[in-house]
Each structure stands twice: as C-alpha cells, then as structure tokens.
Amino acid sequence: QVQLVESGGGLVQPGGSLRLSCATSGTFFSIDDMGWYRQVPGKQRELVATITSGGSTNYGDSVKGRFTISRDNVKDTVYLQMNSLKPEDTAVYYCNADGYGPGYERFDSWGQGTQVTVSS
Predict the structure, then answer these.
(1) Who contacts 117 (Cβ-Cβ below 8 Å, separation ≥6)?
(2) N or C: which end of the chain has fewer CB within 10 A?
C-alpha cells in the first residue's frame, strides 16, 4: 500500500508563489508517473502537471510557463513550484502516483489534497 501526503498549501496573494510537496510512504517496487491535479467544487478534477521517472513533464495549458513540477527519485517525493499565482488557481491540489507494488501489482494512489487559495 502506497500513501501520499501533500504539504505546502495555503493562502497567497495574486502574483505570489507557493511550493507544494508530496511524500510517499509504504512498500513498493517502483514508482512510474507522479503528478498533481486540482479540483474546485462542482467541477471535474483537472491535470496540473505530471512527471515520469525519467523526468519527462507534461503541463495543463492553464499553468504552462508558471508552474514547474520536479521529483526526487531518492526520496520518492514530487514537488510543484507555483509562480505568478492567479485567483483562478484556487483549488484543492491532489498528488498522484502510479507504479508497481512489492508483488508487482499495479497501483494508482492519491493523496488527501491540500488547499491552495489565491486571494488579496
């Protein structure tokens, strides 16, 4: 069982920055893709950014050029640096990771989410 714990959310003014972290725990054979998604009430969860184990990245159109995803494969942790934040970035941000468990079973895990609020 793989657990993901997000941290770093909070309240920030428009134009400000925040850095989210997502740490993994539990037993697994490997972690493949890691990523961040966000959701506001009444809307579907949307892609923010993903990163493969090799470092290839993919971003949602609304965050390109402002957000940067990175990961530490030794610590099995993924980060999201968010710059030039806008009120429309307000959402609950969820961490996601997939890979293989100790018995080579596939897993796809989600964190509990961390609130990001962009407001003056």
Answers:
(1) 10, 11, 12, 90
(2) C
